Structure formats: structure tokens, C-alpha cells
Amino acid sequence: MLNNQGRPTGVDNVTSSSAVNGAALLPSEPLIFEIGTKEKSGVDLPALDQNVGSKLGKFARKSDIDLPALTEPQAMRHYVRISRLNYSIDAGFYPLGSCTMKHNPRLNEKMARLPGIADIHPLQPQSTVQGAIELMEELAHWLMELTGTKAVSMTPKAGAHGEMCGMMAIKAAHEANGQSHRNIVLVPESAHGTNPATAAFLGYKVKPIKAREDGTVDVQAVKDALDENVAGIMLTNPNTCGLFEPDVIEIADAVHEAGAYFYCDGANFNAIMGVIRPGDLGIDAMHINLHKTFSTPHGGGGPGAGPVVLSDALAPFAPLPYAKRDGDKLTLVENKGEGSDHLGRLSAFHGQMGMYVRALTYMLSHGVDGLGRAARDAVLNANYLKAKLSDLYNAPYGDQPCMHEVLFDDSTLKGTGVSTLDLAKAMIDEGYHPMTMYFPLVVHGAMLIEPTESESLHTLDQFIGTMRELMEDAKAGNVERFTNAPMKAPMRRLDETRAARSPILKWEAPTQQKAAE
To answer: What is the pLDDT of residues 428-452, one digit of tens each?
Structure first.
């Protein structure tokens, strides 16, 4: 039988947009414990000699290992099916705001797997890894040139780790200058949530700075908050509303005049790389997410890399290790010299080598002019989405161009019975990963969309068409489409609050009730 759309009955669960977008809506996959059985073994092992003493001593297992047994094809198919349930940038458009989910060029992956790169060990003698150290030095040079700074720490593993590195350098600088009483950090309300968390983790008191009606930081509010107890400001630029801070130089000057330092959150560097050097704006420290800006793998908890660039004032406090050149010989300085102000180590080794290779490959492939073009294209794509959707979705700061991401609120959903969450869930049925929801907090019902530079006009137009159709349907009163969504995904709508507060972290076999006698 065919339905009224000409599709065979029973396979009408993939809409046209999801089919074109390449995000298949698959059936759910059971847990591996539900497929296998503990009563059998998937491999043949020789019987143990019970007379041989165990080297584990009291740590030897006394109970069954309780692992499910599967054949190799069963195990392989299970994990492949699970992997297909994940939404990925290779499967479709990933419009998460403030996350820069761009395409990862396969050339980068090929370079990261080269012999002499993929098979080296951080404990090898430095004389045997001169090429790897030179690669780190070259990448560090690019990062300093792109940001207009004097030093860089390559060690931090991601953005939040980089924030801690930069703020530790600020704290060390104040202590070295006899200013250890400075215990306040200013954080704009539109900042990334890790900013106040990092400051608090290092023992600082966090003082919020209100935004102006146009979504940017109020310079006068910063000046009014500055005093002899302020250690610094943590400001994101471009900010989380998708806007460039027009008064950033005046803010930096005021912060420095008060004896404090300027930490810039570089999570949104993809919007300005190769166009603006943050060092020229007056920043003292900034982390750069290699796993966002320079297209290395992103998501799933890693791997990541968040090098931190430092100004002249903070360069002496950079953590170890760092590359030092003596003629043709390169050395990683791994120990503090006498009288050195270096922070010491932030982690056991030197950082994420695979991320370094991918990022440098991306830089060398594009060149400085190409990186600038990528940033401009990211801004162009975001403004294109804004221009095509602003008649149906309200852009609270719509009277000015956005940068790399466009921000909408939920005001046009009022009276429809549909919320931002409902609309995001309906996007799943259309084959799209939802945009960032309810962030930044300064905008009610926020919808933050970042298209990146790697999406084509065709992809953007397809996404725009879906977003317009969803809003029009919400306004037409088709509430159930949204409140019941997702209806075509492997899992239906979950009680996310309960899942977060009462997670079940261990699978247990269901108990079988005995029949009544």
C-alpha cells in the first residue's frame, strides 16, 4: 500500500527534510546485557590451573565477572548500531550555538596518523622527538601571531582547563606584585558558565556585570565595579549573544588602569581569527579551543585542546613545559629554574599531540588569508540565517549585525502553547540536532544557532525552510506535533529533570515475579 505521499505504508517515519539531511531515524538498540547471556562464553579459553597461585592476592575476583557473552559479529553489529544512533557532524547540520561544530577535514586526520606522530610516547628522550617538538613550536608561533600575544601555554586540555590556566597566571602575577589581596573577578552576565565557575574554583569572589539593552557589556558598569580588590575581568568576545563588544578597548584600558588583568574567553575565536588580533584589543590572557576553532574532533567529552596565549605582563607566569630553541636543537623545558615565576605543570605531559597536528594542518591548509575568509564566511552564514528567519523568529538584538551565531528568543511562541524546548524536540523529527536552548540566560527562551563557515547555501536554505515550517505550524495551533515530539527518533521524549536528578548508572537484570501458588 502507498500512503497519500506516495511512500510505502509503514516507512512513513522519515520526513523529506530528515531524508535529505542524512539523519536516519533508527529503531532503538537494546543494551548489550539484554543481547548477550552470562551463561555462555563468546570465546574458548583453556581451563585454569587451580594450583597456580594468583599474583593478585587479596584483590583476586571471588565472584563471576558477569559480562554478557556474544559472538564477534554480534558484538560488532551492536556497537555499529549504537554508533548510528548518535547524531554527528558527518551525518547532518549541527547548529549548536557557541560550540562551532564545523566539518573536520579528513586531511587533518590523515596527518595525525603519520608515523612519527601517532606512535610516539611522551616519555621518549627529547632527541628522538625533535620533529614533534618543532611542530609544537610552529603551532605556538601561529597562535601568538593570530592573537598578537607574546607567550602561549600549550598544555591545557580544553576551554575550562585553559580558563584555569589563564586565571592562575593572573593570580600568580598579583602575588608576585604584592597584590594578593585582590580577590574579586568581574564576570558579565552574558559570559559562558565556566567563567564564574573557574573564578570561584580558584577562590575568587564573582561580581556580575549587567549587559546593556543591546546585549553588550556596559562600560560604565565595569568602571563602577573596579577597585583595589578586583583581580581581573573575564569577558567573552565575541560574546555569547553573538555580538562583538564594541567598547572592548575602553574596558581593557579601565581594567589595566585599576591594576587588574583582562581574561578573554576565546571560545568564539572562530568568528575573528585572521581578522582581529585580541592582543591588539588589550587582553592579557585568552584560551583558544583548538577542538572548535581549528576543526579538530569535538564532542563526547574529548579529545580537546585549549592553549592559552599570554601578554607580556603574564608571560613569565606561563606553566611548564615550553619549547626552547638553541640553534638547530629544540628542548622542552620541563623543570622550573631557580628564580623562575613559571607555574609548574598543569598536567602530567605536554598536551594533546593529535590535536596539535590537526590544528596546524588546518592552519597551513588555509594560510592566514584563508583563516580570515573562514571567519568572515561564518559571520556571513549567521547573518544569512538571521535575515531569512527574523520575520518569524524574534532577534532581540536584531538592530545590529550578529557575528558567528544568531540569537532568537521565544516571544513569537507566546500564546501558541509551544515552548523553546518543544520546538527543539520537533527539530529532531525533522532530522536536525536542536540548537542551543535557554542560553544565554539574559534572553528568555533563548535559541542560539551557529551555522559555521563549512555549511553550504543549500544546507542553510533547507534548514531555514524547516525552521519556518515549524514556526508556522506552531502558530497554526498544531500543538501536539511539538508537545509529543520527538515521535520518530529511537527514544521518545524523556523526563529529563528526573533523569538528571535520579540517574540509573548501573544495569540490573529485571527481577522475575514468581507465579502465585
So the answer is: 999 999 999 999 988 999 999 999 9
Is the pTM of the predicted complex or chain greater than 0.85?
A: yes
Of the given ranges (62-76, 304-318, 345-359), which has the lowest mean pLDDT? Answer: 62-76
Q: Are strands 285-287 and 261-265 parallel, antiparallel or unpaired?
A: parallel
| Residue 416 reports pLDDT greater than 90 | yes
Gap between the Cα atoms of 254 and 260, Å rounded: 9
d(C-alpha 487, C-alpha 492), whole Å = 6
Q: Quick one: which of 334, 329, 301 has its CA closest to 122?
A: 334
φ and ψ at 261, to 5 degrees? -120, 160
Fold of the domain built from segment(s) 368-490: Aspartate Aminotransferase, domain 1 (3.90.1150)
Contact (CB, 8 A) for 438 and 402: no
At position 199, the amino acid (one-letter code) is A
Kindly list the domain boundaries of the chain, sorted by start residue: 108-363, 368-490
Pairing type for strands 230-236 and 184-188 reads parallel
What value does the mean pLDDT of the chain take? Answer: 89
Which triple of cell numbers denotes residue 402? Answer: 550578529
Position 502 confidence tier, pLDDT thresholds 50, 70, 90: very high
The DSSP annotation for 423-436 comes to HHHHHHHTT----E
In a 3-state reduction of DSSP, which class is residue 230? strand
Per the listing, cell 535529505 goes with 20
With 80 as the cut, is the pLDDT of residue 230 above it? yes
* Dihedral angle computed from the Cα positions of residues 172, 174, 177 and 180, in that order, rounded to the nearest 10 degrees: -100
Q: How far apart are CA 252 and CA 219, in angstroms?
A: 10
Q: Give me the CATH topology for the region 108-363.
A: Aspartate Aminotransferase; domain 2 (3.40.640)
Read out DSSP for 288-357?
--HHHHT-----TT------EEE-TTTGGGPPBPEEEEETTEEEEE-SPPTT-----BSSSSS--HHHHH
- Classify strands 447-449 and 406-408 as parallel, antiparallel or unpaired: antiparallel
